[in-house]
Write a structure and sequence with these properties.
With 280 residues, the protein is an all-alpha fold. It has 10 helices and no strands. The longest helix is centred in the N-terminal third of the chain and has 37 residues.
């Protein structure tokens, strides 16, 4: 019994535990913010602009407009989850089937798809977001759609590599000999076996989307003035760096923790789901 408990404890790596805890905390704060925040995110305390922590009931202080920083951080966590779901959802839904197709066919159209993927990987995601903003106007949804499109090649390459390995297994060869159609093989054998790779890529891409949203909001191309966003908090309070730098520390720390959490979660999931690393 003791040996089994030790073995179970070893399976849950510290990386996965820490990353999962940080991500769970962000999700919890986002859910709570729908029902309660210390102050309204649009309330401005004109008597205490750029106030320090603990001033006039503001736990983390106020920004340059007198808005409560803690409330903005809580509401900003919703934006963080939204941008990740949108960008990563687009990339995963489109990139996963294309990656499976490229891994199963591997000739003709599949080769053309991989060459297009290589070209897209050479195109910076932020530059694509700027192009989208120029065409359709700057908004959070437009920016994250661009980031999602730019992330599709990463999913295609990762899923394709896993599909190529699965296609060489005996049970897939037996299914092909039995006359199963490619769609049936993809749905029954390939997709379940590459889901571990997809989950890990989702976690890593989530962190990239958070950074991209922060960068675009800092440039004024992401969240609008009425939307709470950690990146926009940095943008709107950048002038306070010389006289109240603590205002910028809080959103910067929130972004860093979110990116760290999703990256650690991705590393932990990779170690847990990759059979080649199971005995490490």
């Amino acid at each position: 019994m003791t040996d089994r408990k030790i073995e179970r404890g070893q399976r849950l790596s510290p990386t996965l535990l820490i990353g999962g805890t940080i991500v769970a905390a962000i999700v919890l704060v986002a859910v709570v913010s729908f029902f309660w925040t210390p102050w309204s995110t649009i309330h401005t305390d004109v008597n205490y602009p750029a106030a320090g922590p603990g001033t006039a009931g503001h736990f983390l202080g106020t920004d340059t407009r007198g808005r409560d920083i803690a409330s903005l951080l809580m509401a900003g966590s919703r934006t963080t989850l939204y941008v990740g779901i949108l960008a990563v959802g687009i990339a995963a839904v489109i990139g996963t089937p294309l990656g499976i197709l490229a891994g199963m066919v591997r000739r003709g159209p599949a080769e053309l798809l991989m060459r297009v993927t290589d070209l897209m990987l050479a195109f910076p995601a932020l530059l694509l977001a700027l192009v989208f903003a120029t065409i359709w106007g700057s908004s959070l949804t437009t920016a994250m759609t661009a980031i999602g499109v730019a992330s599709i090649p990463s999913f295609i390459r990762v899923v394709r590599s896993g599909t190529v390995v699965v296609m060489t297994t005996d049970y897939v060869q037996a299914a092909r000999v039995a006359g199963r159609r490619r769609f049936a093989i993809a749905a029954r054998h390939v997709l379940p076996n590459v889901m571990g790779l997809v989950i890990v890529q989702v976690s890593v891409s989530y962190a990239i989307a958070i950074l991209a949203e922060a960068a675009l909001s800092y440039l004024g191309l992401g969240a609008g003035p009425t939307t709470a966003s950690w990146g926009r908090m940095l943008y709107e309070n950048s002038a306070a760096l010389t006289y109240a730098p603590v205002i910028l520390i809080w959103p910067g720390l929130a972004i860093a923790l979110a990116v760290l959490g999703f990256n650690l979660l991705g590393d932990g999931l990779r170690d847990r789901l990759d059979p080649r690393l199971a005995g490490r």
